[in-house]
Amino acid sequence: MLLANAHPDYRKPLDPADADMLGLAGAAEAGRFLAHRDDHAPTPLHRLPGLAAALDVGAICVKDEGFRLGLGSFKALGGAYAVVRLVLEEAGRRLGRPVDYAELGSPEIRSIAAGMTFACATDGNHGRSVAQGARLVGARAAIFVHGGVSQERVGAIARFGAEMVRVDGTYDDSVAEAARVAAEKGWTIVSDTSWPGYERIPGLVMQGYTAMLREALGAVAEVPTHVFVQAGVGGVAAAVAGHLAALFGDRRPSVVVVEPARAACIYATAQAGRPVKVAHGEPTVMAMLECYEPSLIAWRVLSRAAEAFMTVEEEDAVAIMNRLARPGAGDPAIVAGESGGVGLAGLVRAAADPGARSALRLDSASRVLVFNTEGATDPQLYAKLVGLSPQEVLAKPAGSQPGVFA
């Protein structure tokens, strides 16, 4: 269940390029972008005193990305940000001068953006972000989805005016097909995973993700001792671990990376000590995390900055959705999608295992930060798994005030 980081690079400084991308200056750039968005507001940070007591830890705080930028997922921070940065850079090259976010609405910049097409593969949330970013600047988007992506998620992307392309096979097959078609047509791939020779744009996506961590750290009275964060290809986990390493160095919180057991490419990579592609088997309910090959840039960061790696089962993901929807005394009701509560599910599993508690130094003084990375991005599936609609959960009286570690 739990694998300590035994990589030779563990606790070494970040690669200079990663430190630049995920450090203070890079994160501040992502913050500047959000400041220019009229629809931006910090997402809630909730304290779960009831669950913390049940797990015998000092405090649990949940950063709820289900309210992020109208897309219901942390991925709203990544793809759209990368699209906008790429448009600004292209405009700067053509105009021979720096171009700022404040100019995005100008006819001159929108004319340049109109000639650009951004493509990506997605399980749902990243594609929505790329499509939204393209619409923000007046560019075009082509989004590739595999057969496992529900029609509800496809429709949620298409409403931003994106061209939708269905691909047979898995997420990794859709990544390959998007790259092939984009190369033929001269489109720009905005991927949340990286491969040899393709790192900068996924790095920008990860840089966008640092905004949720910065908001969380700005709202807590004390720095967390532990962070449990989920991984698909590893991008958000690396953004969190990398930014914490850049901020706190050897005094950083312990970061535990949590994956579905059915799609644990980061866990397998940590076992092997090198990037590993795992076999595609039975699909996981944690659809946004169903990835079988790690992002190279993400692994480079995690090999240095993650404390441990672990997996959770299908029932763990569904159980935490239900636990958050029907909270214990003192806890607020939270809508978490199938992948949203996976980091918290990892904490529940680890806290119940004496060996894991000892290895991670989890105790009654631990302050744990987790991220609800998505709300009910597929409301019908959410209602099936939880037995309540998202609206019914959100209508419940708050069990506690949004809080901070105390």
From TrEMBL:
Q: Which UniProt keywords apply?
A: Lyase, Pyridoxal phosphate
- SUPFAM superfamilies under this entry? Tryptophan synthase beta subunit-like PLP-dependent enzymes
| The keyword Cell membrane is assigned to this record | no
Task: Tell me the domain of life.
Answer: Bacteria
Q: Which cofactor does it need?
A: pyridoxal 5'-phosphate
**GO molecular function annotations of the record:** diaminopropionate ammonia-lyase activity; pyridoxal phosphate binding
Query: Which Pfam family, any one of them, does this sequence belong to?
Result: PALP
Positions of the Tryptophan synthase beta chain-like PALP domain: 39-352
Which InterPro entries does this UniProt record tie to the protein?
A: DiNH2opropionate_NH3_lyase (IPR010081), TrpB-like_PALP (IPR001926), TrpB-like_PALP_sf (IPR036052)
In Swiss-Prot or TrEMBL terms, this protein is called Diaminopropionate ammonia-lyase
Q: Which organism is it from?
A: Alsobacter soli
